[in-house]
Amino acid sequence: MTARITRINPEQLHETPGYHHITVVETGRTAYLAGQCPLDRNGSLVGPGSVELQVDQVVVNALAALGAVDAQPRHVVRSVIYVRSDDRDVLGIAWRRLTSSALGPAFASASTLLGVAQLGFAGQLVEVDLTVALPD
To answer: What distance in Å separates the CA atoms of residue 113 and residue 67, rounded to the nearest whole number?
Structure first.
């Protein structure tokens, strides 16, 4: 049985820039992806100093992780996006780049965008954490 995913925006809550306030998964298995970082296959940081290039690498990595569990971005039911910045414009750049990428459908579910002081790798500006309702 394939998981049924319902995304809801109650009219009593504010409008969103594309995500939904609530995502309900009726049945199925769930995968929790580790935070996807802007590292290449060799573990080297991609795009030092560039939020855009780092987002692009995070997208590549997240798509590979989803593929490893036979899932697609539309199966993502929760995302948390971390951006190393306190500048809302920079957070907006990361959000728009992610939502317009091949990973974009992942951010239609419940999503949180955070500006943070530090991430795990030197020079890292972006990380994305995904929860997935696995298809059968």
So the answer is: 24
